[in-house]
Design goal:
It comes from Paraburkholderia phymatum. With about 475 residues, this protein is an alpha+beta fold. The protein has twelve helices and 21 strands. The chain folds into two domains: about 270 residues, FAD/NAD(P)-binding domain, CATH 3.50.50.60; about 160 residues, Succinate dehydrogenase/fumarate reductase flavoprotein, catalytic domain (Flavocytochrome C3, Chain A, domain 1, Alpha-Beta Complex).
Amino acid sequence: MVDVLVIGGGNAALCAALMAREAGASVLLVEASPREWRGGNSQHTRNLRCMHDGPADVLVGEYPEEEFWQDLLKVTGGRTNEALARLVIRASSTCRPWMRRHGVRFQPSLSGALHTARTNAFFMGGGKALVNAYYRSAERLGVKIRYESPVEQLEFDGRRFIAAYVGAERITAGSCVLAAGGFESNREWLRAAWGQNERGEYPADNFLIRGSRFNNGALLRFMLDAGADRIGDPMQAHMVAIDARAPLYDGGICTRIDCVSLGVVVNREAARFYDEGEDFWPKRYAIWGRLVAQQPGQIAWSIIDAKAVGHFMPPVFPGARANSLLELARELKLDDARFMQTLDTYNAACRPGTFDHTQLDDCRTEGLAPAKTHWARPIDTAPFFGYALRPGITFTYLGLKTDQTAAVHFGGAPSPNLFVAGEMMAGNVLGEGYTAGVGMSIGTAFGRIAGSNAAAAARKERVDAAA
């Protein structure tokens, strides 16, 4: 028997394991994946959104609590628990020294990562390096780690955790932290959540899984069936419009297409369907997966011209390229006449302004629906480029309700020794929408809280058992 059992192997789980071990608890971490795929979705990340009141190491300027909160409030449409959101925001301002002690290194914002030098701390080597640093630190401190050990069932005495099962093996512990991710790689659950649209399609059939193939939601399903209080909408997720040629699983950050705000996006009917210039890309990139999911066939194309090149992070895979818009339409197999009408109408609606991709400029359209409110310039300079887009799910928001202690709740009451962190509880903060780096902020904050409280709960279990 160990003091603390941590179920999961990503950022939140590792933060919990490290904090519990630092508090003196014996810790066992069980990860569903093989060692080479360890880290869950965290291996695909690259930064953490951080509050700071002035320049701080790799962060420039200031990003105060209220601005962070307003950014989160805007992207979630108010669907967030303010107390827990502010807890995450404040915790993000103090976590970096602790992360460094466990081997994480930071670097300045990448030159192509627009507007994040002030708000986000980038990991040197990306999420894989962060995950590996945490695993090295955990092993050095004596955390026991087991791979290929999925947990799909727990044992309770009322609200109190007793044991977890890896297959038929029963593992007892004084306390437990659940950090096993969402259900994004469970196609049947996605199908059930999204259902059929008015065209008789199952949108989920065309989703790509940007995150881990091992996040099948088995433990989350068990917890919900066992009566744990739920939070979040199963249709809500961190969903990005990614390269349609991306792999089915684990495409990660390299599948993003970041030129949307610099051109136009059309669906398979060659029609625009949303304002591409609504706000800065890091604040709005995560709405585009859902927007594409609502289009016929769950596919769209981002169209740019030569003027946009150099103003965004280049995609890993080259897009279609043509010397005229008509040639591009044919290359993309879109209706020639409709495509040209859409582009001609858009170009005619663009009003002169001073283009500046680093701020909300005055380049906009007039008399066009949907409008493009910023960075609207005619697409008229060869060569022209087109990138096919599909919805790419990073993680789902349906999860377990919790409070500032990270305890799992049953019937409104907290468990004395069962805690939750990361994607399994992110829906408490993210009712919808996303802004870059906030998932890592949530996982780091609640992972550390859960680990500390799990260690304290295990100590209490020992004291109570000895009394």
